[in-house]
Amino acid sequence: MAITARNVMLTLGQSSSPVEILRDVDLSVAEGESVALLGPSGSGKSSLMAVLAGLERAQGGSIMVGGLDFAAMDEDALARARRGRIGIVLQAFHLLPTMTALENVAVPMELAGFTDAFDRAKVELEAVGLGHRTGHYPSQLSGGEQQRVAIARAIAAGPKVIFADEPTGNLDGTTGDAIIDLLFARRAALGATLLIITHDPALAKRCDRVVTMRDGKVVGA
Amino acid sequence: MTLATLWRLARRDLSARIRGLRLLAVCLFLGVATLAAIGSLTRGITEELENRGQTVLGGDLQIAIAQRVASDAELAAFAREGALSQTVRLRAMAVSGDGARNVLAELKAVDAAYPLYGAFTLADGRAVSAPPPGQIYVSPSLVDKFGIDPAAKDVEVRFGTARLRVAGVIAGEPDRLGEGFALGPVAVINLKSLGDTALIQPGSLFESKYRLKLPASADPVAVAERLKSAFPDGGWEVTDRSNGAPGTRRFIERMGQFLTLVGLASLVIAGIGVGNGVSSYLEGKRAGIATLKVLGADSGSIFRIYVMQILAVAASAVIAGLVVGAVAPMAITALAGDVLPVQPGFAIHPAPLATSAAYGLLITLAFALPPLARTRHVPAAGLLRAVFDRGGRIDVPTAAAVVIAIAAVVALAAYSAREPLFSLGFMAAAAGLLALLTLIAWGIRLGAARLPRPKAPLLRLALTNLHRPGAQTGALVVALGLGLTLFVTMATIQTSLTNEIRSTVPARAPSFFVLDIPQVERDRFTALVKSKAPDATINMIPALRGSVTAFGGQRVADLTTLPEGAWVLRGDRGLTYSGALPRGSTVTAGAWWPTNYSGPPLVSLEEDVAASLSVGVGDSIAVNVLGVEVEAKIASLRRVEWDNFGLNYVIVFAPGAIDKAPHNMVATLTVPLASEAALGRAIPPAFPSSSMIEVRDVVSQITTLLTQMARAIAAAASIAILAGIAVLVGAIAASRARRVYDSVILKLLGSTRAQILGAQAIEYALLSAVLALLALGLGMGAGWYVITQLFDFDFAPDMVVVLATLFGGAAITFVFGMASSLPILAAKPAAALRSL
User: Fold this and answer.
1) Which secondary-structure segment (H or E) carries A161?
2) Quick check: B384 and A165 CB within 8 A?
3) Residue of B19, B291, B385, B836 to mutate when probing chain A, most A C-beta within 10 A
4) What is the value of ipTM here, to two decimals?
5) Which residues pair with B364 in a beta bridge?
6) Is the pTM of this model over 0.90?
C-alpha cells in the first residue's frame, strides 16, 4: 500500500498563538517500502506519522494512503479506514491495562468484525514468542513483552502499512534489538509498507530509505 | 460493529475496573433506596387503610350527623339499606368514683350491633359488643390515670350524672382510626346508658354515627347517593369504606409527598455524584479510549461501549436500591411501628418501585450523558504526544437527551404528586440552589485565578488547586454547599419548632378550654371561675356546628372536586355569632356590623377561606345548622391570629342569624399556674356536662406529633447529607491522581507531610469559609419557608444551635476531606514517579 503526502500543513494551538507543526511536507512511500523517519525532537516526525495514519487531520494538503483520500475523511471515517489496513506501534506500548495480552491483540480485529479474532490473536502471540503469556495483563509483563504484544496487536490483522513511533525508545539495547528483529521479520512476512520513527542511525540503516525532518519540513529524502 | 461485540468490549473493560464506578453506584443506591422506601411505606399504609376500610370506618357506609340523632324517617331509610349500628361520640369529663380525679375523655356510646366489622376486644381476651347498661369499658390510659385495679369489682367511673361500673379494659377498638384525633382516653358505654349521663342536651357538641353493613352486591357510593337525595337537607357527612380515615390518609399522603421530594433532592445531589463519578472514571480511561481509536474504534462505538458500562452499573445500583427500599418498610415498622397509624404487612408495591427506578435511571442519564458525550472528542493523536484538548463540546442529540431526561423527572414528580404546584416549586428551588452553587464555584475559580500569587508556596498551591485545569472545585462547592445548607436548614426548623412550642405557646395560650357550658349557666360558670381564680381572664363565646352547603350561588353537593385549599367544605365546621369583632381578628375587607345589629343574616369569613372559595364581600354563603339551612351575605373578611390557642372561628355570624338554634358556650380560661389545679378540681363536678381541656396536654400531644414529623424529615434529609458526603469524597478521590503528583514533587523538593496536609487544609478551609456564610443564608431562608409558610409558625431559630450545627457540619466535612487526603501523603516518591 503506497503513501503519498503533498503540501501537508498542520497547525495546533489556539488562534491567538498558533504553532506550525508541519509546513508544506511532501513525502512518497512506495508499496512494500520501509522508510526511517529521522530528526531532532520537535521536528514534526510524530505529527507527520499521526497525519499519515489518520490520527490527526491536516489543515492543508493531500494525503493518499492505499488509494484512500485521508484529507477528505472525518475522524470516524479515518478510524474505519485504519481497521485491518494500518497497524501502529507506539513507544509507550499503550496496551489497554484492563485487558489480557490475548484480548489486547484481538481488539482491533474485533473492531474490524473478524469472527476469528481470538484465534488469530493467539497465533500472532505465539509468533512473537508470547504464546505462554496470553492470559497475563500488561502490568504482569515486562517492557519488552509489552512491546511484543503491541507488535502482535499491530500485525495480527494483516495490515498493509505499519507505523512505528520509536518502538524501542523505552527498552534497553538488547531487548530493543530483539524487538526490531521481530518487527522486521513480521513485516517481511506480510510484505507491508513500514514507516518507522527513530533516533537510532543503525536502525535507520536497516530501512530501504531514510527521510530527515527539521522544523516541520522534510529536509532530506 | 455489532452490539454483541461492543458489549463484549464493555464488559471486559468493566470487570477489570468496576471500582472506578463505586461513587456512581453508591449515590444511585442511596437515592433510589430512599425513594423506594418512602414510596413503599406510604403505599403500604394507604393500602392497609383501604383494605381495612370497613373495619376502620365501622361499616360499608357511615352517616355522621353533628349535634343531633337521626330522625325516625332517617333511621328507617338507613335500616332499609342493610344492617345498622348506631354510635354517639362526645368529649366529656370522666370523674373517678371517689370524685378525687378527673380527666377529659372520649366517650363513645354504642348499640348492641357494634361492631359491624372487626372485633372489639378487652384485655382479658373477650370479644364483646356494647357493655350492659350501667357498665363501662375503659382504655388502659384511663386505668392508669385513675389508678384503677382492673381485677377489682365495683370500681366506678362517673360521666355527667351517671355512675358506671368498670366491666373491662379495652384492648382493641376496631374503628379507632376512623374516629380521628383523640384528646383523651377512650371509654365505651351502652347507648342506653347515655341518657343517664345527661350529657346530651340541646346544643351539646356530640356526633351521631350510623354505620351500615350493606349486602355484598350493594354499591356504597350508589347507596350514599340514594340516601342523600332522599334527605337533601340532612346536613350529614357520608363516608364509604374506600376512605375510612380520610384525615389520616391525607396526612400520610402529604407527609409521603414531602418526604418523596426530600428523597428526590437526595437523588439530584446523588446525580452530581453520578456526573462526577462518570467524569473521573472516563478521565482515567482517556488513554484507553485513545488507544481504541488508534485501533479503529469510531467515536460512536466508544460512546456506546461506555454507555453500556454506565447503564450496567447504574442498573445494578438501582436494583439493589429497590430491594432495600422494598424491605425497608418492614424494618421501619419493626423499629417505629407505634408511630405509624397502621402497621402495613409485607407486600411489594410495584408502582412506587417503578417510579423510584425511573427516577434513578433518568437522573443517571441526565448527569452521565454529558461526560459520556465528551468521550467522542478524546483525540487518537493524544497517544503520540501531549495534544491540545479539543473536548468540552456536547453534541445536539446528547443535549436534547439530557433535556428530555430532566423534563421527564420533573413531569414524573408533578404527575405523581398530590400537589403538583408544590412539587414543581420545590424542584425549582432545588434547581435554583444547584445553579447558584455552580455559579459560586465558577466565581471561586475565577477569583482564585485573578488573585495575586501568595509568596508562601503552600498557600500558593492551595489557591492554584482551586482553579487548576481538572480542579474539582465545582463538585466540592456543590457537595459542601448543599451539605452545610441542609445542616443549617434542619437546625433552623428544629429550633424554631422547639422555641414555638416551649416558650411562645405557653406564654400566650390560655390554661383551659371549656366546652359545652350550658347557655343558661354562663353566669354561674363565670362566678365559679372568679371565686377560684380572681385573676382569671375568661373569653366565652357561643359554639355551634354546621356544614357549608352553598357559596357564591354554587351548591357544594354539585361539586365533583373541592377547590384547592377549601377544607372548610369538608364536613362540619365550628360556627359562632358575635356582635363585637372577636379578639385576635382584624377586618381586611368590608365592615364589621354594629354590636346591636338586627337585620338580614350577615356573616364574616376568614380571608384565606374566602379566597379558597373565590367569594368576597357581598357574595352569599349557606350553612346547614342542625338541619336548618341559613343563607347569609358576606359582610366582611378577617385576618385571624391562629397560633395563640385563642377562640376563633373562620365563620362568624352577625347576631340574629343562628342564635335561635340550641347551643352551648365555649370558653377559654387564662389563669396563673398556681390556680390551675384548683380550677381543674372545681369545674368538672359543678358542670358535669361540660368538658375541660388542659392546654398543656394538647401542647404535649402536638409536640409529640411535630417531633415525630421532624424526625421523619431529619431521617430523609440525612440521606441527602449522606449523598452529599459521598459526592464530597468522590470529588476528592477524582482529583487524587493530580494531588499525588503534587505531593510527590513537593516531597522531592523537601516538603514535609505536615506541610502538604497544611496546603490541603488551607484549600478546604477557604472553601468552607465561603460556603459556611452562603449556607447560613440559604439554610435559614429554607428554614424560614418551612416554618412560616408550611407550618404557619413564628420564625424563632436558636442562633447558637444553628451556628454550632453549621460549624459542626463544616468540621465533619473538613475531617472527611482531610481523611480522604491521607492516602495521598502515603505515596512513596520513587514508586509514584514510576507510575506517573
Assistant:
1) strand A161-165
2) yes
3) B291
4) 0.71
5) none
6) no
